[in-house]
Amino acid sequence: ASQDKSDLRSPICCILGHVDTGKTKLLDKIRQTSVQEGEAGGITQQIGATFFPKEALIEKTEVVNKDGSVDVKIPGLLIIDTPGHESFTNLRSRGSSLCNIAILVIDITHGLEPQTIESINMLKMRKTPFIVALNKIDKLDVTEWKVNKDTGFRDTLAQQSKRMQRMFEDRLQHVKMLLMEQGLNSEVYDKNPNPGRIVSIVPTSAVTGEGVPDLLALLVKLTQERMTGSLMYISEPEATILEVKVIEGLGTTIDIVLVNGFLKEGDTIVLCGMNGPIVTNVRALLTPQPMRELRIKSAYVHHKQVKAALGVKISAPGLEKAIAGARMFVANNADEEEYYKDLAMDD
Ligand code: GTP
Ligand code: MG
Ligand code: NA
After folding, report:
1. Is the pLDDT of residue 314 over 50?
2. If you measure from the C-alpha of residue 257 to the centroid of ligand 2, how many angstroms do you get, rounded to a whole number?
3. Ligand 1 within 6 A of CB of 135
4. What contacts 103, CB < 8 A, 6 or more positions away?
5. Which of 82, 88, 107, 132 is nearest to 21 (CA)?
6. Is this structure's pTM higher than 0.95?
7. What is the pLDDT of residue 182?
8. What is the pLDDT of residue 333?
9. Backbone angles phi, psi at 37, to 5 degrees
10. Ligand nearest to the CA of 83
11. Which ipTM was obtained for this model?
12. What percent of the chain has pLDDT above 90?
């Protein structure tokens, strides 16, 4: 089949890590939002989804791309936020099952923690490529760390005192040793001779933005290098239901991640319901603005058609008994409808 460039799909990146390592805060830094501050107890309790269009990726990697070596070809990137609290293993598992690449966030002042190790094991099991964000570098010493807002990691490290540089190096070596104990070789990303075999570490601060452009640039590079061939192109629709939510004026809606394919207004969708399969037609396809979190109520944008990967809110009749976590199918005819009804209930 001929595959033209307009058929490139956006890859999915999932953020995993122990509770309070700064997963949501990192996303807030990139989005220029404050979702984390609005969370009950500062704890994430749902899977999130945020779409970053190509133009935003270009702009937000500019400071570390002066030589133009990062050539953004993907149409965008969908980033899935997950909870780190120990009670949400199922949501971490769901999030990691959707992604093409992952960011494992480690707090540089804490090292590896129980859900860090749980996340590593999930990623190993699924053979998902991942990078480490070694976060909270500003916290190595809040008084002595010299903040260089939103700059590249090497630029800010060069401006730190000898003592801070040594402290960073010590903590880095410690984390590398802990990762080695989990069977992982690791190296700071710009000194990594073999990113295919050695885990790249990007030191970051979600508060000051230091190292955050490096993190995004590396994500773009790796997805483009690793997602070759068919993975890069749009194919049949694939979707997973994240949440079933009642929204004033819309009734019961479902929040989904469209992992692959296109979805149109009017499409027949088939999903698992509490009392049997649900077959209904898409009444409205809604998304938040680009770079806004799907799980946060906002002024939604209406679409006639959407393209993967994307977090989408679907309004349709009869969604009251839909089940979160299950797959959603798109049926093109009566035969497919029957087929997907069985498949939906098998999940
Ligand atoms: P869960 O989703 O609940 O697992 O937590 P999380 O990993 O999303 O962490 P979150 O973004 O909620 O941040 C936890 C706390 O750490 C918040 O108080 C943040 O302000 C703080 N924090 C996150 N990143 C940094 C950082 O780079 N530097 C400093 N100093 N504080 C940070
Ligand atoms: Mg969070
Ligand atoms: Na938190």
Report:
1. yes
2. 18
3. yes
4. 13, 14, 15, 16, 23, 26, 130, 131, 132, 133, 215, 219
5. 107
6. yes
7. 98
8. 97
9. -65, -20
10. 1
11. 1.00
12. 94
